[in-house]
Amino acid sequence: MAAELLKIHPQNPEARKINHVVEVLKEGGIIVYPTDTIYGIGCDLMNRKSIERLCHIMNIKPQKLDLSFICNDLSHISEFARRIDTPVFKILKKALPGPFTFILESSSRVPKILDVNKKTVGIRIPDHNIPRTIVAQLQNPLITTSIKDDDHIKAYTTDPEEIYEDFKNAVDIVIDGGIGGNVPSTVVDCTTDELTIIRQGLGDIEQYL
């Protein structure tokens, strides 16, 4: 059955539609959704079968799983990352929500959830009401990766209707939250004494140091 293309207001997500998305996620669904950078694809972090399905869709081996978690706020992060040093926490507090993925040491929960020995985890709190409202309602993070385009010139698809055509036979819902960006998040490694930019994207971490 083809996926549902669901238009949701990006600033004021309709409660009824968010509830519908959350129910689909709880039942093991995969969704495509907008963020403050590019469109992402994800599922409920606590649903093992959904994660396996997501890996299959994106052609990722579970052992090579290197996905990010979409969280709702900083308190959510503490469940999945080890104790965060005060200087790093201050940076996270200033930079989030925002267009960053922070690589942190994973807590003991993460390997148990993913059944993979992951020592680090990528954490995202996007500055976008749709994914954050979904996560708040779901009460679990989304495990997520970016939607990429096969066209090397156009690295990321920005039009939700184009995304729908690409993924309508693979996922359950494609959320139309308007035209997305084409610059991904900035990835910052916080696992050593000095922060390292793994990928420069939309966010400028220098302004928060």
Report on the structure:
It is a single chain. The chain has 209 residues and is an alpha/beta fold. Helix content is 29%, strand content 21%. The chain contains 7 helices and 10 strands. A 10-stranded mixed β-sheet has the order 1-8-2-3-7-4-6-5-9-10, sandwiched between helices. The longest helix has 12 residues, at 15-26. The N and C termini lie far apart (48 Å). The mean pLDDT is 90.
Features:
single chain; 209 residues; alpha/beta; ten-stranded mixed beta sheet; 29% helix
Compressed to H and E, one letter per element, the order equals: EHEEHEHHEHEHEHEEE
Would you report the number of β strands?
10
Number of helices: 7
Overall shape: it is: globular
- Helix proportion range: 25-40%
The major β-sheet equals: 10 strands, mixed
Q: Walk across the major sheet and give the strand order.
A: 1-8-2-3-7-4-6-5-9-10
What is the percentage of strand-forming residues? 15-25%
Kindly report the average pLDDT value.
Answer: 90
Rg = 16 Å
The termini sit apart by: 48 Å
Structural class: alpha/beta
Brief summary:
With 209 residues, the chain is α/β, with parallel strands linked by helices. It has 7 helices and 10 strands. A 10-stranded mixed beta sheet has the order 1-8-2-3-7-4-6-5-9-10, with helices on both faces.
